Amino acid sequence: MDPSTARPLQVTVWGEGRHEQTEPGVARRYPDGMHGAVADAIRQHLGEGARVRTAVLDDPDQGLPASVLDTTDVLTWWGHCAHDAVDDALVERVHARVLAGMGLVVLHSAHHSKIFTRLMGTTCNLLWRNEGDRELVWTVDPSHPIAAGVPNPIVIPEQEMYGEYFDIPAPDELVFVSSFTGGEVFRSGCTFRRGHGKVVYFSPGDQDYPVYHHPDVRRVLANSVAWSAPRGELPGLPPVDFAATGWFEPRALLE
Amino acid sequence: MDPSTARPLQVTVWGEGRHEQTEPGVARRYPDGMHGAVADAIRQHLGEGARVRTAVLDDPDQGLPASVLDTTDVLTWWGHCAHDAVDDALVERVHARVLAGMGLVVLHSAHHSKIFTRLMGTTCNLLWRNEGDRELVWTVDPSHPIAAGVPNPIVIPEQEMYGEYFDIPAPDELVFVSSFTGGEVFRSGCTFRRGHGKVVYFSPGDQDYPVYHHPDVRRVLANSVAWSAPRGELPGLPPVDFAATGWFEPRALLE
Amino acid sequence: MDPSTARPLQVTVWGEGRHEQTEPGVARRYPDGMHGAVADAIRQHLGEGARVRTAVLDDPDQGLPASVLDTTDVLTWWGHCAHDAVDDALVERVHARVLAGMGLVVLHSAHHSKIFTRLMGTTCNLLWRNEGDRELVWTVDPSHPIAAGVPNPIVIPEQEMYGEYFDIPAPDELVFVSSFTGGEVFRSGCTFRRGHGKVVYFSPGDQDYPVYHHPDVRRVLANSVAWSAPRGELPGLPPVDFAATGWFEPRALLE
Amino acid sequence: MDPSTARPLQVTVWGEGRHEQTEPGVARRYPDGMHGAVADAIRQHLGEGARVRTAVLDDPDQGLPASVLDTTDVLTWWGHCAHDAVDDALVERVHARVLAGMGLVVLHSAHHSKIFTRLMGTTCNLLWRNEGDRELVWTVDPSHPIAAGVPNPIVIPEQEMYGEYFDIPAPDELVFVSSFTGGEVFRSGCTFRRGHGKVVYFSPGDQDYPVYHHPDVRRVLANSVAWSAPRGELPGLPPVDFAATGWFEPRALLE
User: Fold this and answer.
1) Does C196 touch chain A (CB under 8 A)?
2) Which chains, if any, share at least 3 CB pairs under 8 A with chain D?
3) Which DSSP string do the residues of C74-131 spell out, in sequence order?
4) Cβ of A173 and D178 within 8 Å?
5) Which of B108, B135, C123, D45 could bridge to D222 as Cys pair (CB 3.0-4.6 Å)?
């Protein structure tokens, strides 16, 4: 519940939704889609405080018509095999809404999504291996709200390995660092403020493993949504403004 | 002189070069172009350590054919009224070269250049007023090499006012904060690491004032070039790499 | 109200309380003490969510016996002429409680308090002049909760000037930058995470001016308390721990 | 060689020097002391550019009389079992010299040294296990000079494990993150600017393993010294200064 408006947070969980259609293992693992599991995690922890809807790439308007995007306080984004299919115009609309104040939670393989690389300005390239490494997610910023209520480390029995060098700007806050069975490390929980919006990147969550059913991962998903939420109405895009001398003076305001 | 290669740094000073053609005042103020003054400042301070060339928008290939860009270690960029005229394909080439390790020094009104907003991922909007405010440039990171050799504050008698909120990501290092006669403040010296490259934004330098003839500003220009220089050859774009388990082990390397 | 414990936040406003005794102007300006005005500002904005008490240097145990300090979630600190009179042992107790998770809001001349320099590790020296400069407090991080609800800039008609170079570590988050009539600038709103605790430094507030009656300043005081509050019970001092191989594994926990 | 003074950098390698006296294994591993190996690494890479001396706790004045400390540009510090034996007055002198501009490179178990905790303001506690884990040192800031010339990762066959949560302020720059055989991670290469000085913490280097003979570790030691070096003479402690209105104006300077 947003205390400044006394209305529930409007959360949209966007999923690519393709692996669920083409890979029986993914469909079995996530009968409501990966987006369904993410949405369920947010509902579980934020309860009445959030109204959560889901949207997928194959929905009309790729799931994000103006009626949806323009009423979203926090958007979560998972994509993998169809990044290129996302319309550039939609990416620009999402980008503008983040800068205007919408929260954005970017998940796992969405490191390569158009919206994330657009916001970061870098390649977001990384090292990878999909062989069921155990991932340990270590908290390096224990007073951060995103790390609230999870053990240190979170133990994920099997996951895809994502490793450094991860080509992102130095995060404003580094919350989690993961290690993998093979010895690689990864900055797996990062925050970035961009314009009036807050962005979280959280890397656990490959389609080949039931990571979004993991209780600690689910808590982090909800924490990330709560942390990135705007206060009340979105402030809008930071403007270019001409300012006469003394514009902020009370006398200037009165005249 | 780059100690790891024993060759001079290759610096390209890019200027839009339009105001000098259309405004007699600018042409008088900068008889060799604004780019000429910037290049001269770098030569003055880096001497034999740098080989400096200039390039302007109206040159063939907008001044940056492959033969120039691909041999540039540090690029400086000033633009204002013709940002839109810069080819998107050129912006992508410059962007890729920054991520591959080239230094980039972005000057004044180039806050709105395509290359800077591409790297930042934000609007880079700000507040402004062009009425000859005195600008004071205060050092808030005195051990930073970019602030070497300048007084605190640098006093610029007349300048355009740029004020907050400046819509950039929080800089990795905040080196200078300016104030203006009217009371506004601005984060006027910022560094950002992006990919393998280092980016500096330094705001003093409007075409309507002789700022690039100011001795302290000239020192900062040269310091910024030196700081953002790569070590030796550019490392190249950060890759996406598949990594087998144990790939870094000496035994793996030997087999 | 702390949602995780459903109890009000316990806030202790500590004031040196000496200027009020010796300077009639300060006593007139702050009939309930400067600490009284700070406490009132927090109550005004946090309402039922906070239980606020005040404590001063001349109270028994310098105002912070174990019964008070050990039940404090957020401590605010204002001091000026009597920093040296604060017992070193008390400073160590406050320091330990911050690292254990208590919030700390350090105000104005408390930049030179023992507790702040202890936490920062630097001199916290600065430039100053007490001649009634107008202070403008500019927001440079508009999505930060500490900046919620205040105009940009906050206009304080008369204040002591504090200027750069301010010898602090680079703040984790820079929220406000001030300018003064004389042209100086100052990083006036800063956050620092130390141990499990969150620290805010906010510079407006000299005894010679009615700054803590200023409505925007009062909002920032309350925002700072809310932001620095721990979640529920304090986690305690970060430990030194020996860790056997695999200590975090479920099987290790079961055996 | 410091280009601004054309004199070699004065480096003092301080070692506790006790394990070498009491443990035959350490003495065999480091026949010239651990400090001898560190000094040798710096000489190897900085050559004529540095003049390196060593000092140990059992030397007169604990190795750092004024004649040594006051002529040191960069100090490296290794200690473990005798932190408490270091005089508080010496710690204050070293602290003041760092804030005045001296570089400081803090090694391994010196995370608990008086000088490091004094500069950090936190406990610097951590997790540990001494069972010969393999340590992998990953570069997460590839354009940083401290990471120049080393592979990613550095492979250290056997080392003590240091793990998170490491109770330090968020570093200004995070250069290295290590993982260990047991799966723990650690922020193993960090920089901190304090006052006019630059501080590096680099964690590899336990007395029970020949880590300071490792070629990549030796390169990092030398890089850290070079990076933290002041430019020319030390600027001195940041002052408290009174500043009359307009003090920086040329006319004020002339009158």
Assistant:
1) yes
2) A, B, C
3) EEEEE-STTGGGS-HHHHHHHHHHHHTT-EEEEEGGGGGSHHHHHHH-S----EEEEE
4) no
5) D45
Q: Is A125 on the interface with D (CB under 8 A)?
A: no
Looking at chain A, which residue has its C-alpha nearest residue B193? A169
The token pair at A62 is: 């790729």
Q: How many CB atoms lie within 10 A of CB C85?
A: 13
The residue count for chain A: 255
Tokens, residue C42: 């927090």
Please give, rounded to a whole number of angstroms, the shortest distance from the CA of C221 to a CA of chain A: 18
Q: Does A236 touch chain B (CB under 8 A)?
A: no
Closest CA to C122 of B29, D206, D237: D237
Please report the ipTM that was assigned to this predicted complex: 0.95
Please answer yes or no on whether B138 and C184 come within 8 Å at the CB atom.
yes
Interchain CB distance below 8 Å, D231 and B145: yes
* Chains interfacing with A (3 or more CB pairs < 8 Å): B, C, D
Chain D residues inside the 8 Å CB shell of C179: none
Candidates A9, A97, A143: best to mutate against C (most CBs of C within 10 A) is A143
**Is C197 near chain A, with CB under 8 Å?**
yes
A151-186 burial by CB neighbour count: b if 16+ within 10 A, else e? ebbbbbeebbbbbbbbbbbbbbbbbbbbbbbbbbbb
DSSP three-state, residue B199: strand
Q: Please list the alpha-helical segments (H only) found in C23-62.
A: 24-29, 33-46
CB of A127 within 8 Å of a chain D CB? The answer is no
Confidence category of residue D255, pLDDT binned at 50, 70, 90:
very low
Smallest CA-to-CA distance from C12 within C59, C67, C60, C55 is with C55
Would you give per-residue pLDDT tens digits along chain C (255 residues)? 445 556 899 999 999 999 999 999 999 999 999 999 999 999 999 999 999 999 999 999 999 999 999 999 999 999 999 999 999 999 999 999 999 999 999 999 999 999 999 999 999 999 999 999 999 999 999 999 999 999 999 999 999 999 999 999 999 999 999 999 999 999 999 999 999 999 999 999 999 999 999 999 999 999 999 999 999 999 999 999 999 999 998 765 544
Number of H helices and E strands in chain A, helices first, is: 8, 10
Please tell me whether residue A153 adopts helix, strand or coil conformation: coil
CB-based contact (8 Å) between A183 and chain D? yes
Spell out which residues of chain B touch residue A182, defining contact as CB-CB under 8 Å. 243, 245-246
Would strands D185-194 and D173-180 be described as parallel, antiparallel, or unpaired?
antiparallel
* 3-state helix, strand and coil shares in percent for chain C, rounded to the nearest 5: 35, 30, 35
Q: For residue B217, what are its two tokens?
A: 């500003």
Three-state DSSP class for D98?
helix
Length reported for chain D: 255
Contact D183 A142 (CB under 8 A): no
Whether residues C143 and A196 touch (CB distance < 8 A) is answered with: yes
Are D138 and D152 in contact by the 8 Å Cβ rule? The answer is yes
The 3-class secondary structure across A183-230, one letter per residue, is: CCEEEEEEEEEECCEEEEEECCCCCCCCHHHCHHHHHHHHHHHHHHCC
End-to-end CA distance of chain A: 40
**To probe the interface with A, which of C9, C143, C150, C179 has the most A CB atoms within 10 Å?**
C143
Chain B nearest-CA residue for C126 = B140
Look up tokens 């301010």; give the residue.
C166
* Amino acid C252: pLDDT: 54
Residues A222-237 as b or e (16 or more Cβ within 10 Å = b)? bbbbbbbbbbbebbeb
Distance CA C71, CA C66 (A): 8
**Sequence letter at residue B247:** W
* Residue C170 neighbours by CB under 8 Å, 6+ apart: B141, B173, B174, D172, D193
Q: Indicate the SS3 state at residue B22.
A: helix
